[in-house]
Each structure stands twice: as C-alpha cells, then as structure tokens.
Amino acid sequence: MLVAPIMCSYVYILASRTKRLYIGVTNSLQRRVGEHKSAEIEGFSKRYHINRLVYTEEWKRASEAIGREKQLKAWRRAKKVNLIEAENPEWDDLAEGW
Q1: What is the pTM of this model?
Q2: 24, β-bridge pairs
Q3: Where would I find the H helices in 1-98?
Q4: Of the N and C termini of the chain, which has fewer Cβ atoms inside 10 Å?
Q5: Residues 6+ apart with CB under 8 A from 67
C-alpha cells in the first residue's frame, strides 16, 4: 500500500539588505525563495529587492501556516524583528547556497 507523502507548509520572512520585511506562506520553501531571489514575480518583494530568507517555520497543515502568516503580518515591526533576531541574530540569509 502506497502512502502519500506528508506535505508541509512553511511561513517565511524575507528581508532586504536594509531590513525591509516580507512575510509569506508556501508548500515549497526552496522553490518559493528561489522565485524571490530571481525576481520572477512582480510585486512588493521584487520592487524592494527583498530576497534574503531570515526566518522560517514549518507547519503540518496549510491552514495553520496561513493562520500564522496572518498573525505575523498583524504584528508591529518591533515584534517581528525580535522574532527574527531570537533565531537569527545576524540576519544571515538562511537560503544562501541553495
């Protein structure tokens, strides 16, 4: 009997070099970050060169990831910065080398 692979969803935060933030959700983190890095998609992240992965969370259900994305987007900037710096104090690009 074949079992379908479990599909995870990811909430991610990207930053520009000047620390402008973008929050998104995806079921393929590597693909989606690649799209941001190559500026394939028109919009906010392309316009402001936001392409450095600085934070990520993995969720088992897409609905949970979407709920978390909405929660993070509602936060004040200082709270988002604290979340990032608790895990990634140097704001390193977590996708460097992908």
Answers
A1: 0.92
A2: 12
A3: 29-37, 44-47, 62-74, 77-87
A4: N
A5: none
CA distances (Å), 10 to each of 17, 18, 64, in order? 22, 24, 10
**Spatial CB neighbours of 30, under 8 Å, sequence gap ≥ 6:** 95, 98
- 10: helix, strand or coil: strand
Q: What is the tens place of the pLDDT at every residue in 38-75?
A: 998 899 999 999 999 999 999 999 999 999 999 999 99
CA torsion through residues 82, 25, 9, 14, sign: negative
Give the 3-state DSSP-derived string for 24-41, with helices as H, strands as E and coil as C.
Answer: EEECCHHHHHHHHHCCCC
